[in-house]
Amino acid sequence: METPLVLRADRLTKRYGRRTALTNCDLRIPRGHIVGLVGPNGAGKSTLLQLACGLIRPTSGTLSVLGSRPAANAAHLARVGFVAQDTPVYASFSVADHLKMGAWLNPSWDPALARRRITQVGLDPAQKAGRLSGGQRAQLAMTIAAAKRPEVLIFDEPAAALDPLARKDFMRSLVEFVGELGASAVLSSHLLSDVEQVCDYLVVLCDSRVQVAGPVRNLLASHHRITGDLATTPTGVEVIWAEHGHALVRDDTAVRHSAAARDAEPITLEELVLAYMSRAAATVAAPRGAAAVAR
User: What predicted TM-score, i.e. pTM, was given to this entire model?
Assistant: First the structure.
């Protein structure tokens, strides 16, 4: 039986004039996860999330969210909650006005959830949104997205401009919402600390392509750091990134059996992400066939 998917992309490509934001991306994200989407600026993260929300259309390839074309109809829109990077709110509207608008626009609106969460984060219903702090605006935007009771919540670097305390509160609220709704979530962030804190599934996007994707636990178990003569790397082991006699490698079985002989060491999530980002950067910068990466 096929695992239900939050998102499926097949050869997904998006171009803006001469610039390509996504290139032939294949991706499968199963339901039931909080997914961390990471990569450098300009990697295509926002483009992927905007495609998933139906705000833009692919140039070629296909993309489905919860089994349907993004924003296929009003019913599908109700199943997806989206919080953009600038956590947009209407400055002249009060907090209460935002909740009324959410109830008017969303047939599955949960007024009790919205009121309770507003109270929990200390927002005054009479306060104008334009006078809220960045953290308060982010909490309001997330409450509106969650109170429609979606099946998936999509966040495009919503905490990027928040101070550390506000960001911590936002991430805690995110986890609470996902748990209460029984939803999945996709969180784009350039802050690996955010991903480590809340995400159990990882997608690394660099150079407009998906570099690696999977459950965080599985990825950390199948990647190791080895030292020594890299020319004798065991057959079947993929070198992700190598420098100064050290290599980060991937293999689901061989490295485990050869760990003692090759001085294999566990890696951190940050090391894993940086290795894939470095490989992508080297592939772009180096002449063909001259990269410091072996497969």
Answer: 0.89
